[in-house]
Amino acid sequence: MKKSPNHRLSDQVLFALGRASQHAQRLVRQHMTEGGVRTLHYHVLASLADDGEAVQATLADRIGMDRSDLVTLLDELEELKMLARRVDAADRRRKIVAITPAGEQHLEDMDRLILGAEADLLQPLTAAERKTLLSLLRRVSGD
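RE: above sequence
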């Protein structure tokens, strides 16, 4: 659904940034769907790869997901052999989750899908403009 260029906020950075973000998210979902993968799987595997293994509750907090919903997702990924869970030796009630080599490969495949979505998003920009955009976004986000 395209907004009219005459929308009252069309000249505001927050409006334009929000619209660009929505478009980027649509492209990521599209590429992931076409690749036959789930975006939520990406969040779990990326967190495990980037931040290391974790207790299930910590992993849920990291990715901002409800702990009970995460269990179902972990069951799916474990069945696909993309992660492994083991009992925490310090507290046998807790399970530690770790990415497997198959999960790492799957994550690399999903990274390529996301890079494809990014290429589609940024296609109208030159290489210099892309670099400038990234620099500006990092500055305003405090990175």
